[in-house]
Every structure is written in structure tokens, then in C-alpha cells.
Specification:
Elements: E1 2-7, H1 17-27, E2 40-41, H2 43-53, H3 58-64, E3 69-78, H4 83-93, H5 95-98, E4 105-110, E5 116-123, H6 132-147, E6 151-153, E7 156-158, E8 165-166, H7 168-184, H8 197-203, E9 208-217, H9 222-231, H10 233-240, E10 246-253, E11 261-270, E12 280-283
Parallel strand pairs: 1-3, 2-4, 8-10, 9-12
Antiparallel strand pairs: 3-5, 4-5, 6-7, 9-11, 10-11
């Protein structure tokens, strides 16, 4: 997030700030409208801009307006006399930021002669629920790609590990926990009813001798989720544990929760016919 203020001589602030930003992107920033989709106005970003005008910080304003941004930029202009002045200032000062093609939405708030607040953002997006199976296979592929190479997790060195296969039962356990975290707005290996990863796996019908769990929140893609786990020594160790043979993974989304999206990756080794009880559970 970035916040920048420009002060000009006092004067009336005109209302067409959004159009001025679009014209500045085309005229000053070299972004032809034919190849660059226009910014779309967001009522939530209008509210973010209004909160900025009342003295809020950008991050706090987004939180209060319930707008989740992957990245955002706020511009404060005081005393612009017309749209042309807004266009010129934006084009001359903010092209580097506004040229980012990932920025898709805009909001603005004018407060009379006191100023104009503009917010441009890339909205935080999550995988569609209908793509759950595709996402699971993608996480599996990324996890197995990591296991295929020796890796250091914190201070521990792991050799390459055999590839995992997807387990329907572990996927059910992962889905239940992700939905639980999303619905009850918490982030923990302990479920809202007090369940543990091992208990959830058994409840889903998985008889295990070894079980482990990784969780993540607020990460919008499978690649980001797996990268975050690999960057954490304990989560990385779960991924690299050769004793695991299967995994299940699921995400759940709830825009009212703090992290919006919650991931659970459950690992397991089935109980063999000669084993009568589980060996161990790994929780990261």
C-alpha cells in the first residue's frame, strides 16, 4: 500500500476525478485504452476514500470498508481548480504506480475545497469454488514438485521424498477444517469444537498411522499457499516428510472473515493391516 499527498492552491475540486485518472493513464502514462481495460468504480473504494478524508490510514480504511486489496494506492490532491489540473497532476506524478496493469478498480471522494481523495486498487481474488478439484490437483503438483528435490527446512535437511497421491478422505477432512475456519473467523489447528487434525481425519473415514496438517490464510492462489508453507520451517518439514504417502487439500472462502480464504493441507499414511493404532500426528 502507498499513500501520497500533493498540495495545490486553494480552489474548487471537481467531481470527475475518475475520468481524469483514466485520461491521465492514456495521455501521460502510455496506456492506450484499446489495450488497457478501464478502471471500474467500486463503491467500497469510494467508502475507503471517504474514510481517508476523515483521517483514517489506508489499511484501516480498507478494513472498515470491508475491501480486501491485493495492492492499493491512495492519492490526496488539495486545491485542484479543474479536471485538467487533476489529470495533469496524476499523469505527471503517479504514472509509475498507475501503469501497473493489475490495478482494476477505483474510488474517489471529494470534500469541497478541502481536497480530493482517490484510491486505486487490485482487488483480492480467490479461486472459484467450482474449481476446487482443479485447485487440489495444482496444490498436489506443487507439493510433489517440492518433494522431488532435497530441501533445507530451517535447520533440518531433507532428502527427496516420494510423490504423494490425493486421498478423498483427507480432502474431506481438509475441506471441513477450512470451512470451519472461514465460517468462525479463526486460524488454528484446533477446530471450533476442539477437534485435532487426527480426529478430523478419522471422522472423515481415514484410518491413519501418521498424520500431519498445514494451514494458511489470506493467500489467493495455490502457488502462494505452497510457497508460504515452504518458507516456514515447520510447514516445509511436513511437505518433505517421506513417511507421508497421501494428502488432501481444500480451501474455503468467506468475505466476512478476517483472512477471506483459508487453506488446509492434510497429510497421511494409512494404517497398515498389521498396525492396530496410530503412530504419530504432526501439526504445523
Amino acid at each position: 500500500m502507498a499513500a501520497i499527498a500533493i498540495l495545490l492552491r486553494p480552489g474548487a475540486v471537481l467531481a470527475n476525478a475518475i475520468g481524469a485518472v483514466e485520461r491521465a493513464r492514456a495521455a501521460y502514462c502510455g496506456l492506450p485504452r484499446a489495450s488497457q481495460p478501464p478502471l471500474t468504480e467500486s463503491r467500497k473504494l469510494d467508502e475507503v476514500a471517504r474514510l481517508l478524508a476523515s483521517g483514517s490510514t489506508l489499511g484501516r480504511a480498507e478494513l472498515r470498508a470491508r475491501y480486501r486489496a491485493a495492492r492499493s494506492l491512495s492519492i490526496e490532491i488539495t486545491g485542484a481548480t479543474d479536471d485538467a489540473a487533476i489529470e495533469r497532476i496524476v499523469g505527471q506524478r503517479f504514472c509509475r504506480q498507475l501503469a501497473d496493469p493489475r490495478l482494476r478498480q477505483i474510488g474517489a471522494y471529494g470534500h469541497g475545497e478541502d481536497g480530493l481523495w482517490i484510491v486505486v486498487a487490485q482487488p483480492f481474488t480467490t479461486p472459484p469454488r467450482r474449481d476446487a478439484a482443479i485447485v487440489s490437483r495444482r496444490v498436489l503438483a506443487l507439493t510433489n514438485e517440492a518433494r522431488a528435490h532435497a530441501r533445507t527446512c530451517g535447520r533440518r535437511r531433507f532428502p527427496p521424498a516420494p510423490p504423494l497421491t490425493l486421498s478423498a478422505a483427507l480432502t474431506r477432512a481438509a475441506r471441513a477444517h477450512s470451512r470451519d475456519m472461514a465460517a468462525h473467523n479463526f486460524f488454528s489447528h484446533t477446530g471450533s469444537g476442539g477437534s485435532s487434525p487426527g480426529e478430523r481425519a478419522r471422522r472423515a473415514g481415514y484410518r491413519w498411522s501418521l498424520v500431519g496438517e498445514n494451514i494458511a490464510g489470506g493467500l489467493g492462489t495455490p502457488r502462494k499457499a505452497v510457497a508460504a508453507w515452504l518458507a516456514s520451517p515447520a510447514h516445509c518439514a511436513n511437505i518433505m516428510t517421506a513417511g507421508f504417502r497421501q494428502m488432501g487439500v481444500a480451501f474455503a472462502v468467506d468475505g466476512r472473515s478476517g483472512d477471506v480464504i483459508y487453506w488446509t493441507e492434510d497429510f497421511g499414511r494409512p494404517l497398515s493391516r498389521t498396525q492396530s493404532r496410530p503412530r504419530a500426528a504432526h501439526v504445523r
